[in-house]
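Sanity check

After download, print the first record. It should look like this:
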Amino acid sequence: MAVARLHLRAYMSGVYLTFEQLANDVSETYMGVIGEPLVWLVLTVIDIYIWIVIIGVVMSWLVAFKVINTSNRFVYMVGDMTHRMTEPALKPIRNMLPQLNGIDLSPMALILGLIVLKKIVHNIYMGML
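Expected C-alpha cells:
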C-alpha cells in the first residue's frame, strides 16, 4: 500500500523512481513506524531496571539501619522482588570488583553499564535513519 502511494506520488510529480528507490523509501518508512516504538520500549525497560536497582540499594540501606523492618509483609515482598530482579546482574559484577570493607560498588557499576547501553542503543537507532 505504501509502495502504491509512493509510486502514485512519483507518477503525479512527473519524476521517475526506480524500484530500489521505492523500496528504500518504504523501508525507511517502516523503520520509523516499527523501529521507533521498539527503541522506545527498550530504553524504557532499561530505565525501569535502573530504578529497580536504586530501590533495592535504598531498601538495603534502610533495612541495615533498621529504619524499616522486613517483618512487614509489604517491605519483605518489595525487598525480595528487587533482590530477585537485580541479583542475576549484580552477582557477576560483585565477583569482578574488589572487596572494599563492606562497600558494594556493583550497583553503581551496573547503573553505569546500563546508561552506556542506553546510549549505544540510541546511537545505533539514529545511525539506521
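If your output differs, re-run the checksum step. Summary of this record's structure: Residues 1-8 have pLDDT under 50 and may be disordered.
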